[in-house]
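for the writeup, i need someone to sanity check this before i put it in the appendix. the sequnce is what the collaborator sent (i think, or maybe the updated version? ugh). structure was predicted straight from it, no edits. if anything looks off just tell me and ill rerun, i have time this weekend
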Amino acid sequence: MCRVFAGQDPEGYKQINRSIRIAGHSTSIQLESTFWELLDEIAANQSLTTPKFISKLYDEALEINGQIPNFASMLRTTCALYLKGRRPTQADLAELHGKAA
């Protein structure tokens, strides 16, 4: 069983930095390439660019929690929640696009 995990392609856990504008400030986020691929997929499923999705996620998390102690970790757990099937409902997507219009 561990061979499935141990034998994975090292490219999947290669660290990649991306520069993104969040709350009007440019910042660099470093994540493994697998997480960037998942964030790209999540954003596309919501008809957003990845930077726009990450910015919205940041803003909403601040609104809900008041602070984000480790945003890179939050992005990783966002990917885990997505893979566990906690995806936005049609109503969530309609609200997202209603606010964007």
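Strands lie at 15-22, 25-32. The mean pLDDT is 90.
thx in advance!!
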